[in-house]
Amino acid sequence: MEIYLPIAELPVSVFTVFAMGGAVGFISGLFGVGGGFLLTPLLIFSGIPHPVAVATVTPQIVASSASGALSYWRRRLIDVKLALFLFTAGAIGAAFGAWLFAILERAGQLNLVISLAYTVFLGSIGTLMLTEAVGAILKARRARKSGRKPQPARRSGQHNWIHRLPIKVRFRQSRLYISIIPVLVIGGSIGFLGTLLGIGGGFIMVPALIYLLRVPTNVVIGTSLLQILGTMAVATVLHSVNTKTVDVVLALILMVGGVIGAQFGASFGLKLRGEHLRALLGLLVLGVGVRFLVNLMLTPDHLYSMTILGGG
Asked: Using CA atoms, how far apart are residues 68 and 262, in angstroms rounded to an integer?
């Protein structure tokens, strides 16, 4: 059964789009990430125009983040003050991302920039994640063979050079007294990348909060979800007003599939070890980056395109 997408201006199979949403939802539940970094490429690879793919993923991220953030809110596992600082910076970053998005679209360079950014960004992140996970697996195996307990990873609550930066603020829920400079940089970067590339940024935000700011693990995910919820809501409004590239019909189908798939992914994820999950996620991220690289190297089907410009 096909349905016409009014903004993308093409017919698509409802079941195909639903399956994509379900698959990304499964991965989101399995790895505990938003899934935007996978959903946007999937839409692009299936023929959805780059601007529509990026903009339409933002409301889907809002829906999935809202569901998760509400659960953590009820359990009081969110540092609201920290999330507010992250959101403020994220909203500013989102505004810059939307501004650059509109400029690149008018210049006809948006598709190229998105493809290059995904190739470099996902390739780098995937390589780092895979390297760290494989190292953790090998270390655990050597420890088991020698009869020793594996050395614990770096724990939250410990301080590093970032904590010595000026302009400090106390975050009581996280039991931290740290500079707001790295907090604003992290939040602004996530907002900028999320709006420009259509990613929630949870797979970057969570490690950054744990390993750089030393935020306690029990409040990291909820705080990250609340920040992503606010930032992507701003991004959705900016895309809707500035470029009018949010396809509501496409977003609704993706949301339904994503909610269902996430339930199965969360159940399956409980059966795997943490380092194995990180290794699989690293492979997945790296694979998407390689796919973009291959697309950039292939000769396009149409070497030239024509666009009718309205006279003024």
From this structure: 11
Contact 64, 229 (CB under 8 A): no
Strand, helix or coil at 110?
Answer: helix
| 39-48 confidence digits (pLDDT tens) | 888 888 888 8
> How many Cβ atoms are within 10 Å of 198's Cβ, its own excluded?
31
**Tokens 């996280």 identify what position?**
174
Contact between residue 226 and residue 78 where contact means Cβ atoms under 8 Å apart: yes
**Residue 69 CA: distances (Å) to CA of 21, 63, 125, 223:** 20, 10, 25, 8
Would you say 288 and 37 are in contact if contact means Cβ atoms under 8 Å apart? Answer: yes
The DSSP secondary structure of 256-273, one letter per residue, reads HHHHHHHHHHHHHHTTS-
Distances in Å between the Cα of 155 and the Cα atoms of 124, 207, 216 are 24, 12, 8
Tell me the C-alpha distance between 115 and 210, whole Å. Answer: 29
Determine the Cα–Cα distance for residues 291 and 46; give it in Å rounded to an integer: 13
Write the single-letter amino acid at 191. G
Per-residue pLDDT of 149-200, as tens digits, reads 655 544 444 556 666 777 888 888 888 888 889 889 998 998 898 888 877 7
Sorted by sequence, the CB contacts under 8 Å of residue 58 that are 6+ apart come out as 36, 194, 195, 198, 232, 235, 236, 239, 246
Up-side HSE of residue 169: CA atoms within 13 Å toward CB? 14
Element (H, E) at 99: helix 80-107
Return the bridge partners of 179, or none.
168
Could you tell me the pTM of the whole model?
Answer: 0.72
Q: Is 81 exposed, middle or buried (0-12, 13-18, 19+ CB in 10 A)?
A: middle
Token output for 73? 């809110």
Contact by Cβ (8 Å): 64, 27: no
